[in-house]
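Deliverable D4.2, example record:
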Amino acid sequence: MTFEEALEIASGPPSTDDRFFEACTVVATAPESRAHYRVEALVSRGIGYMLRQQYADALSDLDEAVRLNPTFDRSYVNRASVYSILREDQMALSDFNRAIELNPTNPIAYAGRGQLFRRLGLIDRAIADVAMARAFDEGNPHIERLWEQLLDES
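Output generated by the structure prediction step:
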């Protein structure tokens, strides 16, 4: 696979497909790959691993993405999601907070932290975060569904 082909595939939606993983690996390791592309490829491959439920591999890629670019909020949001799945709540909260600090308009970070707060029984904080997510991403069906569930619980 050429670098250009790999870049096109890796830039698409994350997948569990082996070709997607190959493309992300090519982009993440190619000498001609710019730093931003490497980080994006690591994050995308990390999401793919998360979808495959290969959480150690996902964390490895996302840790490397954070190391390479500690100001890229998507790395933190996705790593927080893995930590949340693993019930490592303090790590998840720390990463959601860092993502929001880096990008205060990231609706996915607010929604993720809201889901974490909901699971922890902090419904008022969950509602506040999901309200922020709704403000930044109006009409997102995932966020709207979470909002309705929170309103039912409060």
